[in-house]
Amino acid sequence: MVSVLPAPARRLLAAACAAAASLVPLTAVPAVAGAALPPPVRSEDQRDHLTVVVRHAGEGRDGTYEVYCHPGAGRHPDAAGACRVLDENTRWGRDPYAPVPEGTTCTLLYGGPATARVTGTWAGRPVDASYDRRDGCQTARWDRMVPLLPRPGASA
Predict the structure, then answer these.
(1) Which listed residue, of 4, 68, 139, 156, carries a Cα 20 to 30 Å from 19's Cα?
(2) Domains: count for the chain
(3) Domain ranges, residue 96
């Protein structure tokens, strides 16, 4: 299972747990050999779920795709890869779907007519993001999400 928390946050959480545990007297904790907490169980409606609608990306790339993560599944050509790129782009305190900030200087390199809209739930939060390739910044933002978003081209 891939953790959504970045390494610094996991270390901070582990340190906080260790500090709290040191405050509990050892006599208050019953010794149970081999006891472990079971992994959290997510119901179908609690899983990360995204709907991706792609237009003008090229033959075999346009369409509507469903992606479920943790575990990866859905009607997407590469659901596992899509979930992996989402996990890689998820950082504590940053929106992986954030638009390019206003006033950003971008190259005038047109990346093509492809557009995409991503909606659903990721990491327990609602998602509604639009993508295009109208300039270098938008193209780079799109490319960070490949294979969730397809690499535009002429054929499948």
Answers:
(1) 4
(2) 1
(3) 7-143
